Amino acid sequence: MALVTLDVNGRKVSSDVPARMHLGDFLREEARLTGTHLGCEHGVCGACTVLMDGQPIRSCISFASACAGKHITTIEGYDADPVMRRLREAFTAHHALQCGYCTPGMLATARDIVLRCPDADDARIRVELAGNLCRCTGYMGIVAAIRSVLADLIATPDEEISALRRALRGEPAGAVAALPAPASSSAAAPAAQTPFEGFIAKVTTPVKDTAASASSASTASSASTSSSASTAPASRTKGSEITGQFEVPFPADQVWDFMVDLPAVASCLPGASITEHDGDRVKGKVAIKFGPMSAAFNGAARLERDDTTKTAVFRGAGQDTLSQSRANGDITYRLTALDSSRTRVDVELLYSLQGPLAQFSRSGLVRDFVRRMIADFGRNVTARLQRPADAGAPPPVAAFSPTRMFFGVLWDRIKGIFSRTH
């Protein structure tokens, strides 16, 4: 046991604790400040982030004894801080929290971003937030809240916040808010470096902003491209991946001619409809309903094809007007002739969701749901090839029953559980 004394939110807290007690446990159990949340307890999720001498640290992997004599600020101690006042208002205005579990740590990191990166854009904010995980929001509201605070400070500087920024750079701070200024030794560190950014740079490729990805996809939809095999391939979408396949009892050439006919393909995709069609480009809507999730994505897409290998990529991006969620993705399908009258179609879906619906994107049920949609799409393709539409007549729209599909997915899961237990 060791006697540990900390200055927590301006109050001295002393207690005899085990030498290896972490700061997060000390704050919750000894100081009775339960606003500091413990998540992964491995320093990964960022929920436990607090300020030590004005700098964000992970309280779940910091020993309390190593913090003795330091100034610790938790979510309960921000009331006098000018940055946090603005951030709290912005988080509310931009719906930047849902369950709230990550919010104490997210606010601590957001405060650091506002002070250290006054000119940060969306991409920079996302890099800085890389050490704070949120399972609910999709980060769009969080990024928008931080960006709005930065924009307001550029338009109308705040002397209290300017003083905190000067103190962070080791300059005379003047009048500062109640939070202690960072230790002067930290001023020698590069201003643009966070404790996690160096780690990220070592173990990952450069971070690509997902909002920029959606914007790039939308821009690409309106750019001029060629559908020939020599066209340079566009970059792959970053996000979740789902694969599936189906067989069609027709020759590969016949199936290929059908699969590059965009109105015909759309008529086989449950919930899809085309409003505009120009060559290999379309605009339209995809309606989805699955349990509590309901959305109608309006957007644009284009088809890139390779007639030699019978491979095509359908690239698109869209937005749901109700939730303001955005989606972009690539659907790649490849045809393989099994024999003279049978063709296998392999489908790979790469997609990313941003906004409130992002919380559903990695759900196991959603993945099963999409695989069922691929299977239904294959059955619709076969039906259309068996009964071609009359020449000149608009193609029929594939019937879609969300209830039937929902219970079909659940039944498949139930059967899978029983098959594994017997």
UniProtKB/TrEMBL annotation:
A Pfam family that the UniProt record links to this protein: Fer2
Keywords in alphabetical order: 2Fe-2S, Iron, Iron-sulfur, Metal-binding, Oxidoreductase
Enzyme class: oxidoreductase
GO MF terms, alphabetically ordered: 2 iron, 2 sulfur cluster binding; anaerobic carbon-monoxide dehydrogenase activity; metal ion binding
Low complexity composition bias: residue spans: 215-235
EC number: 1.2.7.4
CDD domains named in the record: fer2, SRPBCC_5
InterPro entries: 2Fe-2S-bd, 2Fe-2S-bd_dom_sf, 2Fe-2S_ferredoxin-like_sf, 2Fe-2S_ferredoxin-type, 2Fe2S_fd_BS, Beta-grasp_dom_sf, CO_DH_gsu, Diverse_Oxidoreductases
Start and end residues of each 2Fe-2S ferredoxin-type domain: 2-78
Disordered: annotated span: 215-240
PANTHER family to which the protein is assigned, alphabetical: OXIDOREDUCTASE WITH IRON-SULFUR SUBUNIT, XANTHINE DEHYDROGENASE IRON-SULFUR-BINDING SUBUNIT XDHC-RELATED
Protein name in UniProt: Carbon-monoxide dehydrogenase small subunit
The species this protein was found in: Pigmentiphaga litoralis
